Amino acid sequence: MPSSLDAYLTSALEGAASGRPIADAIRHLCTAAVKVRNTIIEGGTSGDLGGQRGETNSDGDIQKELDVLADKAFLKAAKDSGFAFFGSEEQEGPVRLSEDGDLAIAIDPLDGSSNISTNVSIGTIFSILPVSAEQKANPDTVFRQKGANQLAAGFFTYGPQLHLVLTVGDGTHVFLFSPKFGGFVEQTASVSIEPRAKEFSANMSNYRHWDTHIRNYIDDLLAGAEGPREREFGMRYVGSLVADAYRILTRGGVFLYPGDERKGYQKGRLRLMYEANPVAMLVEQAGGAASDGTRRILDIEPESLHERVPFVFGSKREVERIARYIADSDALAERSPLFGKRSLFSS
Ligand SMILES: O=P(O)(O)OC[C@H]1O[C@](O)(COP(=O)(O)O)[C@@H](O)[C@@H]1O
Ligand SMILES: [Mg+2]
Ligand SMILES: [Mg+2]
């Protein structure tokens, strides 16, 4: 019999009393994820889960039927888990759920909304944070703590398979929902990201909006074996962060969603508290790296629940290389159109 998520949670968390609420919370989140997955399989009552509801969320995005259903399912799970606060992409601000709990959850209930109607993998991303007595008295500060404080982080993917990718700070683990087993079973005990990237992931339609250093980096990848990197790179971009992150966790590569000149995109598109922070923790726990191009994501002091952040993550060497392209603007200014083979850019 495969090893169960339950057995993992018991051994990883329940030895210490402080770990029990986190283990319970993860079990409740799994129950909600199975419900969301069932709703997706059945197509919802309207038959169009990607249909617009005419309302906008905190970010100005038009909410889809499934955004709202998933938010409700995970809000209930958070209440049942005893979380003190719920900070969701689909809610205006922090929601206080209990006076007693010492945990908060930041959540993207439905990630990859634009892919709902296309039957492409979508997911739910979550970040579990501690709540101090001072933060309880001042709820606005609960979701202004850096990602390094996360106690656990993960995402569910609703795709051909239902996965939970989880870290509680002792590596990154993948669990697969097995209807036969009636729960989640361990699929990969400890994920390790390939250090050398062979693929990149970016929305290339934004190329013309990017700064020169990002365009130069991408140009060097596209030049392949004839360019300064002297090897070929593939490109994959699903447009659901959970799917792009899962691919990078399992076979390496690098993801970039930089800021650009467009109104509303100066800090990219992804949200720090419930997209970048949890993915960054999973990636670091798997031996990879995550930055905003300059700073480690997990060290960023957030200003608000919904703030965006430029996001680069994946194979460690590649993330470090992108930081060098950004930092070394003088070297880039001298960059030869014939791809001078400086050590900074090759390999
Ligand atoms: O469509 P774009 O601009 O490429 O952005 C894609 C990104 O936006 C997202 O869909 C944003 O998430 P939501 O669907 O939760 O708003 C990510 O999953 C994805 O990485
Ligand atoms: Mg999202
Ligand atoms: Mg979302």
From TrEMBL:
Residues 193-325 form the Fructose-1-6-bisphosphatase class 1 C-terminal domain. Binds 2 magnesium ions per subunit. Keywords: Carbohydrate metabolism, Cytoplasm, Hydrolase, Magnesium, Metal-binding. It catalyses: beta-D-fructose 1,6-bisphosphate + H2O = beta-D-fructose 6-phosphate + phosphate. It is found in: Cytoplasm. Mg(2+) 1 binds at E89, D108, L110. Its cofactor is Mg(2+). GO terms for cellular component: cytosol. Mg(2+) 2 binds at D108, D111, E275. Its EC number is 3.1.3.11. Pathway: Carbohydrate biosynthesis. InterPro entries: FBPase_C_dom, FBPase_class-1, FBPase_N, FBPtase. Homotetramer. NCBIfam families: PRK09293.1-3 (NF006779), PRK09293.1-4 (NF006780). This is Fructose-1,6-bisphosphatase class 1.
